[in-house]
Amino acid sequence: MHKPLRIAAIAAACALTGGVLYGAGAATAGQSTANSTHEPYNIGLLVKDIDTYYGTTADANGVYQASSDSPYAKDLARLDSAARKYINQAARKAHHRGEKPAVMFDIDDTLLLSLDYEKRYNYTYNGTTWADYVNKADRPGVFGSAELVRYAESKGVEVFYNSGLSEAQRTAAVENLKKIGADVNLDADHMFLKDKANPPAYLSACATPGTWTCTTVQYKSGTRKHIEDDLGYEIVANFGDQYSDLDGGYADRTYKLPNPTYFVG
Ligand SMILES: [Mg+2]
């Protein structure tokens, strides 16, 4: 995922630390570019702020973990509580109307937390180290997200995944999601990953075999359009940690999970 236009949070996201936006229409709010003309927030203090926000501690194996009583965890708990209420209502309405309700989840830092990677590599991205990290399939879950996946399923809502991870990372993604308890619809009909070599026909406006020019928003919203228009589902809620997960329509409501550690445009 992270590859195109990924900007380290350290350069871009000072305003977000400690904040969480969620709810309908929030997807385009907040910072979307790094265009500050005044002196940016001090990088050393920002790193400390991020550690405080996650309640970051190294475990016995030296792996950085977020704390379950951190401001990050509390923001997620508020978001999850609101989302459950909404999903319950939206599912009932959809079933009443004879619609097929669905929810969409991004994977990286929406379901699987990459805090250890980000802190270890100073919030910068490298394709090789990132691939190694993903392939270990040992990321912890984002607090509450696996429970939310299972809650949606329990309400008769079809769970889909929409990720910038590549087809080559599918096995590791499935293994890791099982490990955190998000063991719902982890098949290729429900988990949409980036297939640059053989892109699906519904992305033909920006991708043909061997030529991929889709932005994250084009890729992700194009996938949601396919699920709604071709597969006949009504996506009632879409969950992501980046605005580019949420922009572009084809979801009744968007939920922006907090992530002050990097920015994907
Ligand atoms: Mg993500």
Automatic annotation (TrEMBL):
This is Secreted acid phosphatase. It comes from the Bacteria. Keywords: Glycoprotein, Signal. It comes from Streptomyces guryensis. Residues 1-29 form the signal peptide. InterPro entries: Acid_phosphat_B-like, APS1/VSP, HAD-like_sf, HAD_sf. Gene3D superfamilies: HAD superfamily/HAD-like. The keyword Repressor does not apply.
